[in-house]
């Protein structure tokens, strides 16, 4: 079953956005990643059986504060 997850991430520049998207795409079960929001500070992840907590932890450690 497809799920959509919206995570608010503190991203100040394009380099941080690219890094966060790269880390999210590498996560198991993720099929698509999009930047959303007025300030481009949200990541929408689409996939099957995605571990939300694991993904959020990975983004916190590797890219930016989520």
From TrEMBL:
Residues 2-66 form the HMA domain. Gene3D superfamilies: 3.30.70.100. GO terms for molecular function: metal ion binding. It comes from the Eukaryota. This is HMA domain-containing protein.
């Amino acid at each position: 079953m497809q799920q959509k997850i919206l995570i608010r991430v503190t991203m100040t520049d394009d380099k941080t956005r690219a890094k966060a998207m790269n880390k999210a795409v590498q996560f198991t079960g993720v099929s698509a990643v999009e930047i959303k929001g007025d300030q481009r500070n949200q990541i929408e992840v689409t996939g099957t059986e995605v571990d939300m907590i694991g993904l959020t932890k990975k983004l916190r450690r590797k890219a930016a504060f989520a």
